[in-house]
Amino acid sequence: MRRLSALLGAALLVAVSCGQTPPSTGASPTPAASETPQAGGRVVYGATGDPKTMQPVISTDTTSSFIWDKIYIGLTRANYKTGETEPSLAEKLELSKDGLTLTYTLRDNLVWSDGTPFTGEDYKYTVEAVARSVKTVRKSTFQDIVGWADYRDGKTDSLAGITLGNNGKTIEIKFTKVFCPATAAMGGAGGGILPSKHFKTVWNNKTTDTKTNIDDNALNMAPPASMGPFVFKEFKPGVQVTLVRNDKYFRGAPLIDEFVVKNYADATAIKNALVTGEVTYYPTVEAKDVEEVSKVDSLRGFRYKSSSYNYIGWNAKAAKAPWLANRDVRQALWYGINVDAIMKKIVFGLGSQVYAHTPPVSWAYDPSGLTQYNNDVAKAKSLLEKAGAKMGADGIYRWTDGQPMKMRIETNQGNNARETILQFAQEQYKAIGVQIDPLLESFNALLDRTDPGTDFEGFIIGWSLGADPDPYSIWHSSQQGKGQFNNVGYSSPAVDQALLDNRNGPDCSKDARKAALKKVDQNLNQDAPYTFLYSADTNFFASKQLQGVDPNTYSNAWNIEKWWLKK
Amino acid sequence: MGRFIARRLVQAIPTLFGVLVLTFLLTRLSPADPVQLMLGGQYDITPEDRERLRQSLGLNDPLPFQFVTWVWHVIQFDFGNSFYYHRPVIQMIGERIPNSLQISISALVITLAVGVPLGVLAALRRGGIVDHTIRIFSVSGHAIPTFWFGLIFVLVLGVQLRWFPIGSMNVVGTDCTVCWDRLWHLIGPVAVISIGGIANLPRILRTEVLEVISQDYVRTARSKGLRERVVISAHVLRNALIPVVTLFGGLLTIFVGGSLVIEQVFNWPGLGRLTFEAAINKDYPVVQAGVVFSSLLLIVSYILRDISYAIVDPRIKVR
Predict the structure, then answer these.
(1) Contact list, B264 vs chain A (CB under 8 Å)
(2) Do A87 and A71 contact (CB within 8 A), yes or no?
(3) Neighbour tally for B293: CB within 10 Å
(4) Which residue of A245, A261, A390, B302 is 20 to 30 Å from A59, comparing CA positions?
């Protein structure tokens, strides 16, 4: 699930590929080949807050998904390094030539932790649960399946577009129109697949009777069976969730006996627990803490690229800053800021500069032909003058209508990285003759205020992107309504078409989608609706006792069954 | 006494109603939108999906309707389900109250056990080095906020020296309530929260003891040939304790309010931390229940205080 990285300050620290480059510790990322893995022991992970649910259909937060994805998994998963869709419970997936039929073939002999066979029925049940859930936020993923609306609205008692064959070993999904990201999205059934045998006791997928429902039932906080590496054991509110190894896990029983997700008040408390050895690993150590944590002898670090980036958005529809509708002005604002200096200050150089939307780690990334906008005050000023601005006696440019080029840039308070970017922007834009009025507010207020409209000018925030690239909702010109994400008022017919090509094909091949996304990136790079800043690396630290870890951008626990603790 | 308690309980009803109105209004008038917070900035969620979620939480009903529905349920001790955790709020509160009481009761005992002797000592050694030392401790303990003590405790004694755990109730893998492990985890939060009370108590008690000690009946007691220990404990202390009882109600406020911060600092899964997190998440049902329960706790403590007056000083008649 892609989400604004502003949440939990994750923006600073998310992933980037390129293998593990240990932060200054210089520790070896992998154990010596001669060591024999030992079974047993407990791994403790620190999370902020309790899981809100342990059931994927209604899950919306990271602590919850961290837990349920150890229990409920998908037919496919994203490759931990490349983000490409790879088989998981399904051994094969095929998309028909017309892009309208997707067929999964399951592996042989799949069983739940309680011994029940895993079949396509579990998959179908889970998708049907999404259709009838009131609290889910995943319906839009499935809306193009044939018969979706009829089942959702209770007109049919089975989702017609999903048919099972060969005793539930093959799953065929029919779509009403081509949707290229479906291959990635369908495999997980919008998260992980539920054990239908158990959940049918709390929610019947054949009736519309609302006395039982998928949203509020006891199993949501007590997963009854697992297809993942661990089985739910116990939830102690405010304290921890305990999972134990699943001996029937299809990739092999984990070597670790117990996996505990312990509840901490905040990121600092987790970092302290990592330092004192209470927590075994912490995948998102903040850049400012990397030096301190690196000095701890008992820990070793991994660093990898993230699929997120921070940016300054410029609202082309801003009533108080009409100049933001001008491309030359936006380019000037990009030239006017020293991104390199910002990166040194905030992430200590541990990251990559970005020049367009697709993050460097994505399979669709192609930087050729992108302008790099190196900090250049003279060029910024000449672009402003080209756009029609005239320098005033006070050192601030006057726009064509005579008003001084003053505007607000806002961001969320408490996010050190963004507050620092704002300070830089204020200082550096003064040097190019643009005056900034900084505003710090709560994250929620920032989201509210920057909802598409005319009442805001610049804002600093970030995106954390999923493995499958589909930036339609961020850049398509139709996405400027309330609650939608094209809040900078960006509108480009060429980009609109390229976004649709990436989504609706009809050619869903990687090459075709990559070409479409390149067009999007090239246009964004030139139109500069954002001043794209940087993508921070992820700093993953673990106890030296923990062996076999190989974290990367799209998964830090893809091989968790092979992790082991050195005694 | 029974009628007195009953009357105090009846008098508490308007207070409670005021608490209910204020709690409800404060949570609803804050500009943040709980649905927005629940979903963060997930950009692949359609406005229709958001709207459906809002509707399901009852957030689209008119405010007065929401209030009346809520109060009706509260009377039956039904606080609804948490927006975030999808669990009954009463159950969540029930899980946390015993944890909070462990800290509060221990802190109260420590505060009285240390604070009362210090106050008496300061009065008896007036102007001496003991008195000055206690005063310095009192003033600084009063001036420095408890959360600061908490952070320093965690950083120095927890992270740096590793003498104490950095928080939570037990070591992972240990699950006991009456055991050395729990005691070891209690030391930090209880010590820190007690500092506020210990700083307060001796100052007030010293003044009271000094005033009582010069009373005629104390001189009489001494002239009767009573031993000094008896004079102090039976005559001086009993009278000097009346203002301390007044302070007792205030102490509970400190413990309830202080525990909110201290539970956060020490990662203690109590009512304070639950309420704090719920407030951050705009989880209305939990915030409201947390505030209502804290207020109930305070009201009960004030009633207990009034009863204690009568016990400490029989001259105070219960009317």
Answers:
(1) 265
(2) no
(3) 22
(4) A245
Q: Considering only the beta carbons, identify the residue of A6, A134, A276 that sits closest to B166.
A: A276
Per CB-CB distance under 8 Å, the chain B contacts of A41 are none
Q: Mark which residues 462-521 of A lie under 8 Å from B by CB.
A: 463, 470, 473-474, 481-485
Nearest-CA distance A562 → chain B (Å): 22
* CB-nearest partner of B269 from A1, A237, A485: A237
Q: How many CA atoms lie within 13 A of A325 on its CB side?
A: 10
As given in the structure block, the two tokens for residue B135 are 């005063």
SS3 content of chain A, % helix, strand, coil (to 5): 30, 20, 50
Half-sphere exposure of A251 toward its Cβ, with a 13 Å CA cutoff? 20
Q: Does A268 touch chain B (CB under 8 A)?
A: no
Residue with tokens 């990898």: A304
- Tell me the three-class secondary structure of A442-467, residue by residue: CHHHHHHHCCCCCCCCEEEEEEECCC
pTM over 0.95, yes/no: no
A133-169: burial string, b at 16+ Cβ within 10 Å, e else = bebbbbbebbebbbbbebbbeeeeeebebbbbeeebb
Q: Is B70 exposed, middle or buried (0-12, 13-18, 19+ CB in 10 A)?
A: buried
Integer CA distances (angstroms), B150 to B147, B161, B228, B263, in order: 5, 15, 40, 10
Compare all CA atoms of chain B with the CA of A260 and give the residue at the minimum distance: B172
Quick: pLDDT tens for B219-260.
Answer: 898 898 888 888 888 888 878 887 777 776 666 666 666 678
